[in-house]
Amino acid sequence: MILTVTLNTALDLTYGVPELVPHASHRVSDMSERPGGKGLNVARVLSALGHETVVTGFAGGSTGTVLRELLAARPADAPAPGTAPAPLTDALVAVAGNTRRTIAVVDRATGDTTQLNEPGPLVTADEWTALLGRYEELLAGADAVALCGSLPPGIHVGAYAELVRAARTAGVPVLLDTSGEPLRRGIAARPDLIKPNADELAQLTGSREPMRATRDARRRGAHGVIASLGPDGMLAVTPDGIWQAAPPARVPGNPTGAGDSAVAGLLSGLVEGLSWPDRLRRAVALSTATVLSPTAGDFDRAAYEELLPRVGIEEHAPAA
Amino acid sequence: MILTVTLNTALDLTYGVPELVPHASHRVSDMSERPGGKGLNVARVLSALGHETVVTGFAGGSTGTVLRELLAARPADAPAPGTAPAPLTDALVAVAGNTRRTIAVVDRATGDTTQLNEPGPLVTADEWTALLGRYEELLAGADAVALCGSLPPGIHVGAYAELVRAARTAGVPVLLDTSGEPLRRGIAARPDLIKPNADELAQLTGSREPMRATRDARRRGAHGVIASLGPDGMLAVTPDGIWQAAPPARVPGNPTGAGDSAVAGLLSGLVEGLSWPDRLRRAVALSTATVLSPTAGDFDRAAYEELLPRVGIEEHAPAA
């Protein structure tokens, strides 16, 4: 089983409008509602890849109830022909506060998206203690764990460092995907993997030069750093070597969720004992197939299968 | 008791953002949630004025549940010193669909608001029949009724005409506040009052000249037409005469809900047997005090008391 942790889950709403005009009134022409937060997105992709997955984190209030109902009722996400997704189990911890909403306003004229994110519920010390207990129980049965996304109000900035240490103590490989100070603190606790994008790396290291920034991030404590280069693919600096992986071509589409699909690719590859090049091929093919999907955050299964053998892998000389 | 009908109730969310930038991601800095839809706003003001009020219309799904909880728990809206608001009773009819959300995104740099309105639940024929039954029961105890706002999907465009006729059959004075084709059809059923703004009047009559458009609207069937002139006050063309009412000065602020406060002023004045000039004074003072209130849709009680004697009333010569 793969465990994903989403401390700040979200009810993701997508509103289509004919054209977004600031300071005007808009009638929403089409809308959808789905369970969100990075770890839930990662879990959905893992499940579609056939990996049994458990999600934990916090959910509460009326929006939390809707999120959990949608999670229980979720349709099979792009399953391969003749296959069903693996079980995705809800082990979220109930909180008194209201799970946040995020709203993606999609301008149907241009396809551009304007995002509005509520901050999330205030989590109490008792609720955090309950999460820690649930997490340690779940680690006992986990082959790998992903810690994903922002922290809700009330959670201390070293929370991810604490979760990384618990995973390492339990001997469970841990991937950390967050940003800012929680990432800086979390890295110092020596996670197996981090997956920053260019902005997150620059914020962490002060450098926008991918190789320099990625190596710097490794020196700060992460065993492996997989830097997302956006449409150019990924750069992996690991204890076993350095690789760059690139999709066969740049593709048009919506990058929402592409990073979460990459995390699912890396983590499933690790659990399956794939080589680094194969893990990277999967991560790049999944994230490209997510950009290509008409539904934000889903991946296009046919595009994934087609892209997988065509991802370019280049091995770099070991670090000086 | 005064009855208000809101066929398309809404959970009104207000999101403050430091600055709204299209196609960017925003963290919501402050937010509030309250029961909305024009008839609910009218009822809140009526209750604050000391009038026992019953609300009906539709509510459903998780957003409908939150709306009803907030309605039951609503704080006293700007009650006069030493007074409490009169009871506001929830007689909403449950529907299977989800009550819509409306989102007002307030740019905290400029105060400008960008509005996003979900369309509302699809209401079935059986649910409409249930509403008609509830409405006729409630009319038996009503001194006046206000029919407010847009129609949700599934409701026929002559719905307000049907509700106007039922009120007239029951001998209950009826005010209709809607727009477009539902207004056009509703007027033909001869409501006691309509309260269009300049845009609604122009859409109905083709004229932007207030006196001409207001008289035209009366000829179409409304016994009395109270045209909102925005910051310039109101023009009332009634069977008893023609009056224009204006606030002592233009005021800065947020006009959201000013029209609903005016409806509450007109309806409470009718039930109390006030003269037309006194009803108009109340409506203009309430709507101006709503623009002045820091919370969208609430009125500033002190400003209302202060403005009331200062509203200017001018009587026009009877229609030629």
TrEMBL record, chains A, B:
It comes from the Bacteria. Residues 15-297 form the Carbohydrate kinase PfkB domain. The keyword Kinase applies. Belongs to the carbohydrate kinase PfkB family. It comes from Streptomyces pulveraceus. Keywords: ATP-binding, Kinase, Nucleotide-binding, Transferase. Pfam families: PfkB. This is 1-phosphofructokinase family hexose kinase. PANTHER family: 1-PHOSPHOFRUCTOKINASE (PTHR46566:SF5), 1-PHOSPHOFRUCTOKINASE-RELATED (PTHR46566).
